[in-house]
Amino acid sequence: MDLKNIENKWVHQFAKPIIIAGPCSAESESQMLETARRIKESGADVPIFRAGIWKPRTKPNGFEGVGVIGLNWLKKVKEEYGFRTATEVANAHHVEAALAADVDILWIGARSTVNPFTVQEIAEALNGTQKPVFVKNPVNPDLALWIGALERLLSQNVQNLGVIHRGFSTYRKTKYRNIPNWQIALDFRQEFPNIPMLVDPSHICGNRTGLAGVAQEAFNVGYEGMIIETHCNPDEAWSDASQQITPEVLADIISNLQIRNSDISAFDDEMDRHRTLISDLDFQLIELLSHRMKISEKIGTLKKDNNIAIFQPERWKIISEYAQQKADETGMSSEFIEKVFKAIHEESIEVQNSL
After folding, report:
1. Res. 262 pLDDT band, cuts 50 70 90
2. Domains and CATH numbers, the chain
3. What residues have CB less than 8 Å from 119, skipping those under 6 apart?
4. What is the number of H-type helices and E-type strands within the chain?
5. Per-residue pLDDT tens over the stretch 286-306
6. Which DSSP helix (H) or strand (E) runs through 258?
7. 66: Cβ contacts below 8 Å, ≥ 6 apart
8. What residues does the Chorismate mutase domain cover (predicted)?
9. For the chain, N or C: smaller number of CB within 10 Å?
10. Does the pTM of the predicted model rise above 0.90?
């Protein structure tokens, strides 16, 4: 059996969209129970309650999760409010403890997915489990690593699989904590349409702004659900406070989501997929242009300090020739490329003049 042939019948237990919600980190029994109670009382259709028990941190001496005691709080949430439960596992010890506590759904985090040795250890500890196991995309944009992690699980007879799109790290500062890079996620969906994909707007956005928009984009292109961080008192959360929302806000986001009908035409589905990719590329273009103009400012400062004229004909000639070469290589209109580069060059001169 390979990834393209697994049946994933587990997904039919849930109505779509599948919503997994709960705090980034389990902090106390009371915090867990209050969050679960308010999710229930909000009317949000949330079948699965999540909480981080072990938290991988970038630097030492930070809060790294409450550990095994938090699994008892997850059990209590299940007993008192009827949620199924989910948590992240990052090594064999975590797997053994989570399975012993009968956590219903497990996921492998982005930091673990990048390391094949870690994934192999987790896969072997999960050998033969019937519990659904999700794999988050690796922090770096590497589709092969993402697929490889799933193949390692399948090789250990773990057949109830899903993936979580949580965005990709970038060295540039953007409005996202992790840029969506929809192309990679949609390439995955194209190759493995039978593997359910959830979006993680909390980690893509990194703050409360834009969560609904990112979730909607994902549902526009057919994602099966989302995992979203929800806390009874987000501002006081012990980890990732800025990206967590209250249960009441969660209910509002869910109620306003536009979910596709199952009989939507293939044309409309494909159209939305392409539009999402165009929006993603437009965002990247704007970010790159912004970065380019910041470099132009530095060049302008150097010219000013050294009393050099802003317009350099030889430089413009080099840019024009390069643009023509790239137009020929890509089969694009040379007139169009020249217009684009001319507009960029003119704006660079304006930026330098403003200094």
Report:
1. very low
2. 9-256 (3.20.20.70), 266-353 (1.20.59.10)
3. 108, 112, 113, 148, 149, 152, 153
4. 13, 8
5. 888 888 888 878 877 877 777
6. none
7. 25, 26, 27, 53
8. 265-355
9. N
10. no
